[in-house]
Amino acid sequence: MSKYSVPYGKGFLQFELPVALGADVIMPIDVPAASDPIGEVEYSLAHPVDGLVLEKFHHAKRVAIAINDKTRPVPHHQLLPPILRKLETIGIHPDDIVLLIATGTHQPHTQVEISGLLPAEIINRYQILSHDADDTSNLVYLGTTLRGTPVHANKIFMQADLRIVCGNIEPHHFMGFSGGVKSAAIGLAGRETITKNHSWLLHPCSIPGEYHRNETRQDVEEIGQMMDIHYAVNVVLNNSKQIVRSFSGSPVGVMRAGMESVIKNCQTLIADQYDIVIASPGGHPKDINFYQAQKAITHASLITRDGGTLILVAACPEGIGSDRYERFMYDLHSHQEVLEKFKNQGFEIGPHKAVQIAMRALKMDILVVSAMDPKDVRLLLLNYAPTLDQAIQSALHKRGENPRIAILPKATNTMPVLVES
């Protein structure tokens, strides 16, 4: 037997497969971390990708920085201090800087969650606010994009003289890539804005690794232009969520440079699809709830044969993670009913996850290995497996002799590209 392991929550699940099956492990290149991660961020600030230095904005009286929320694996303790020190060296006082947690449609963070997200020295020194996409009193309307998206943006962010986004660039299951203006264009937008933008996820080019033809991503770029985001600091992480590279400068320049690095590390060419795919989102926080963990299904489905089996391995300690998604699923008994109900009621954030699942579950079996309540898994019309070994045995029983098997330990960071022979 050959031994394998995949990330699960803050640990790993181990399993065995017969040697004769020859499973393929598909994951991003294991790039070594920067020897001095804070120094890497400092270097990028001193050497921006397009020459745009923060010193240009020394006259700013108020600075707003969009930062990622707890569902993203951003090492804020290494990314933020160099940025904040740089701002102080150009004459901007800490009292004039606000950090805005870019939650998008996620719930605003509690003080306990903020304490787990940021180091105490930052919490004690700077104003920190959590965005609420449904707080219309704190949104300003900026107009409509060419694709018809009404842009409602966080008022505090828009009132700042210097607007900065920081976070990480990685593959995204329908946006192509995370990073760049997205932290603010989605993370600090109103629900109506996010809903209309995300309605493009059904477009055929809304897939991992696609940028220029991706309608969802290009709409985000236009939202970012309308928000007039001045500066970006983004990092690229390795398989251990450590900083490998940092890029600073204009959001467009940072995005261009960061994507090139991500493609080099994460894109994998696949000659043929697989009968069984075992996929982990990559552990905490990517499997903090099913709402986040679902992204791994999108990536893994790209290489799962129609009629095959996809096994999702995700701890999901916070359960489903979306009340709207959960309510939408009540009284539904098939994935076809999911598609019909969604079509009849119109696009909505939360239930959009059900559609993404349904489109794939109609083509393949999806088994879920999780700490979630089995009733919640069944509510989502998915098959619950008590253990990974049981899920594998079930899949092997259905697929017959000599199935092609793939293992994606870091599915949401893996960009599999099927290449026709």
Provide key terms for this protein.
421 residues; alpha/beta; Rossmann fold; 2 domains; six-stranded parallel sheet; six-stranded mixed sheet; 16 helices; 20 strands
Structural notes for this entry:
The protein is of the alpha/beta class and 421 residues long. The protein has two domains: 2-28 and 271-418, 2-enoyl-CoA Hydratase, Chain A, domain 1 (Alpha-Beta Complex), CATH 3.90.226.30; 37-265, LarA, N-terminal domain (Rossmann fold). Helices cover 33% and strands 24% of the residues. It has helices at 37-46, 76-89, 111-117, 120-123, 155-159, 182-185, 191-198, 215-227, 251-266, 290-293, 295-301, 323-329, 335-345, 351-361, 374-379, 388-399, and strands at 2-8, 11-17, 24-25, 63-68, 97-102, 127-130, 139-144, 150-154, 162-168, 171-172, 176-177, 231-237, 243-249, 267-270, 274-279, 304-313, 365-369, 383-384, 405-408, 415-418. The strands form six sheets. The protein has a six-stranded parallel β-sheet, sandwiched between helices. Strand 1 and strand 2 (11-17) form a beta hairpin. Helix 1 packs parallel to helix 2, helix 12 packs across helix 14 (351-361) and helix 13 crosses helix 14.
Please provide the count of β strands: 20
Low-confidence stretches: none
Q: What's the average pLDDT?
A: 95
Indicate the percent of residues in helices. Answer: 25-40%
> What's the CATH H-level superfamily name of the largest domain?
LarA, N-terminal domain
Strand ordering within the main sheet: 3-19-15-16-17-18
The Rg value, from CA coordinates, equals 21 Å
